[in-house]
Amino acid sequence: GQNIDQPTEMTATEGAIVQINCTYQTSGFNGLFWYQQHAGEAPTFLSYNVLDGLEEKGRFSSFLSRSKGYSYLLLKELQMKDSASYLCAVMDSNYQLIWGAGTKLIIKP
Amino acid sequence: DAGITQSPRYKITETGRQVTLMCHQTWSHSYMFWYRQDLGHGLRLIYYSAAADITDKGEVPDGYVVSRSKTENFPLTLESATRSQTSVYFCASSEREYNEQFFGPGTRLTVL
Hints:
The complex is a heterodimer of chains A (109) and B (112).
Chain A: E1 3-5, E2 9-13, E3 18-25, E4 32-37, E5 44-49, E6 53-57, E7 60-65, E8 70-75, E9 84-91, E10 97-99, E11 103-108
Parallel strand pairs in A: 2-11
Antiparallel strand pairs in A: 1-3, 3-8, 4-5, 4-9, 6-7, 7-8, 9-10, 9-11
Chain B: E1 4-7, E2 10-13, E3 19-25, E4 31-37, E5 44-51, E6 54-57, E7 64-66, E8 76-78, E9 87-94, E10 102-103, E11 107-111
Parallel strand pairs in B: 2-11
Antiparallel strand pairs in B: 1-3, 3-8, 4-5, 4-9, 5-6, 7-8, 9-10, 9-11
């Protein structure tokens, strides 16, 4: 079966760095997406990785290792507005997104 | 308004009633999707559409019907609502099947 695993909840301090991990087992691979979802709102696109390595976009970076079925999202200089759920999704061989249950990130002052 | 919209935003209905959730996008994206989001689960794909008059089942299609007569609209119908269909429903669109998806604001549906 297809499976995406990510921690249910993480807590971090304002100004710090946090890494949210995602491991996956899917039928084929056509890229990995990270989305941010604030409570009561829609998911919004953060990043896309299809090749191994690190993609940096401002305070956010995303890493992919296809051989290990592993990705992480790195958030630097955390701000209170970063409190949200972070969703990992893998695009399978049929170009359908398989979603993890999300990681709720709590930022403390 | 530009973007992707859903209506209604909130809906309460009773078991056995038919309910239609609307989705409209102004980008002329080819692909449109319907997901449901439940606590403890990732987003689950109900149906998707590659173009007008082309639809296909996702992971959890039972009890749902879709149509797509125009590129910009993708309504989702619950033919006979059940309590297990209480959920938040998101519509999304993308330009190509491999592009990032853009989500509507969601419809919170409660079936009593």
